[in-house]
């Protein structure tokens, strides 16, 4: 939902440039500070002058009004089902009583009109750094997120996907570290807000004053103590669809499922493929699949080749389901343009390249390969993934 790019670089055609101190929606929300950019939006820290709470306000570019309306519809569905009997039943019988949805909460939505131009606005809870920020933090330390925390992050993402998939009938379609964010606690929210309301001298936290544990400093003075008590949430439902919808293009290339490449019908467990890629990334700081090429077709060729090297070739029955299968595969199921393939053993890669203990490497390999099935009909659901021994141990 938010990145750390500079304000000057974030200018986009059709985007409304809010001013600090400006009040929107009949003077209810006051702009405090720019927080970052969404895909086609800007995100601001705002104060609700009615209830005196602080929120994140996403103002959509006027060029993407249809997408904004669709995202608001999805966010409404996420709110409406929080206390549904189905969710309560899943909590009690499958994942544990009183689980959070692990999805970003929308507080309000409205339209801001300027010179007959409509800007759709979404008011949301304030969240902190992304999972990608955390990965990069550890990358700079020449280490990575430990297995215990990695497992807890995965568990929380899966709970979010269970809620999204089975309760709300929504497919996220863009699961990746940028779209998973850390929830801020009350102290961290105060640190963020106090910085924004200090007119004279900002209170900067000095890294060398922190002596215990892994501490991540976000927005100059928000202290994130990295441990298994952190709460993670799925964000950016701008590309999400309902389960009775099919979009032509989904997913970011490094997390792209086979069905989205060959343009076969996808379902909720297209997110499970992406999740498996994310799990590898958070524990190694590297992509599971990083396709390269001078064109999209070359990149997809490379991606399919890497998939075959890791999990073996796809079945003919699966390939017959794809509108684009013939673009990449021969009639016998061989790739058209890449023949020289080398078998990859994931556990060996984890031991040799990332210094995993052999036992842990094999357990993680089993979990990831359990999710990486060519055919969505053979791929597990989010609930089945949640019950996997690697999560439950």
Protein traits:
single chain, 393 residues, alpha+beta, 6-stranded antiparallel sheet, 37% helix, disordered N terminus, transferase, EC 2.7.11.1
Structural account:
A 6-stranded antiparallel sheet has the order 1-2-3-4-6-5. Strands 7-9-12 form a 3-stranded antiparallel sheet. Strands 8-13 form a two-stranded antiparallel sheet. Helices cover 37% and strands 17% of the residues. Helix 4 (147-167) packs antiparallel against helix 7. The protein is an alpha+beta fold and 393 residues long. One of its GO terms (biological process) is regulation of mRNA processing.
Low-confidence stretches: 1-12, 195-203, 205-211
List the helices and strands in order.
EEEEHHEEEHHEEHEEEEHHHHHHHHH
Give the averaged pLDDT, no decimals: 91
Give me the secondary-structure category.
Answer: alpha+beta
Instruction: Name the shape in a single word.
Output: globular
Terminus-to-terminus distance = 32 Å
Please report the number of helical segments: 14
State which percent range the strand residues make up.
15-25%
Q: What is the percent of helical residues?
A: 25-40%
Cα gyration radius (Å): 22 Å
Q: What strand order characterises the main sheet?
A: 1-2-3-4-6-5
Largest sheet: 6 strands, antiparallel
The total count of strands amounts to 13
Protein name: non-specific serine/threonine protein kinase
Keywords: ATP-binding, Kinase, Nucleotide-binding, Serine/threonine-protein kinase, Transferase
Enzyme class: transferase
Family: Belongs to the protein kinase superfamily.
């Amino acid at each position: 939902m938010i990145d750390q790019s500079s304000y000057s670089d974030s200018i986009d055609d059709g985007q409304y440039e809010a001013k600090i101190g400006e009040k929107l929606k009949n003077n209810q929300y006051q702009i405090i500070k720019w927080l970052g950019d969404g895909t086609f939006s800007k995100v601001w820290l705002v104060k609700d002058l009615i209830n005196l709470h602080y929120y994140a306000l996403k103002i959509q570019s006027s060029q993407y009004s249809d997408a904004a309306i669709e995202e608001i519809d999805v966010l409404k569905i996420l709110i409406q089902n929080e206390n549904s009997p189905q969710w309560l039943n899943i909590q009690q019988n499958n994942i544990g009583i009183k689980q959070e949805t692990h999805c970003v909460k929308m507080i309000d939505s409205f339209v801001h009109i300027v010179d007959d131009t409509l800007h759709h606005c979404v008011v949301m809870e304030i969240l902190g750094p992304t999972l990608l920020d955390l990965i990069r933090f550890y990358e700079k330390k020449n280490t990575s997120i430990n297995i215990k925390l990695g497992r807890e992050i995965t568990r929380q993402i899966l709970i979010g996907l269970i809620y999204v998939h089975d309760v709300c009938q929504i497919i996220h379609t863009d699961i990746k570290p940028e779209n998973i964010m850390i929830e801020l606690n009350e102290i961290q929210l105060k640190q963020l807000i106090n910085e924004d309301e200090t007119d004279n001298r900002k209170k900067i936290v000095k890294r060398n004053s922190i002596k215990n544990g892994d501490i991540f400093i976000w927005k100059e003075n928000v202290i994130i103590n990295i441990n298994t008590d952190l709460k993670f949430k799925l964000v950016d439902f701008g590309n999400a669809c309902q389960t009775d919808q099919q979009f032509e293009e989904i997913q970011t290339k490094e997390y792209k499922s086979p069905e989205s490449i060959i343009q076969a019908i996808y379902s909720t467990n297209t997110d499970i493929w992406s999740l498996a890629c994310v799990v590898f990334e958070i524990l190694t700081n590297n992509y599971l699949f990083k396709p390269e090429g001078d064109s999209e077709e070359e990149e997809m060729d490379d991606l399919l080749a890497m998939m075959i090297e890791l999990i073996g070739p796809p079945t003919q029955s699966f390939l017959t389901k794809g509108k684009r299968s013939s673009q990449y595969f021969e009639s016998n199921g061989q790739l058209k343009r890449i023949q020289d393939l080398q078998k990859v053993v994931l556990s060996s890669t984890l031991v040799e390249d990332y210094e995993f203990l052999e036992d842990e490497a094999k357990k993680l390999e089993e979990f990831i390969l359990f999710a990486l099935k060519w055919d969505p009909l053979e791929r597990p659901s989010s609930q089945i993934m949640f019950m996997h021994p690697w999560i439950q141990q």
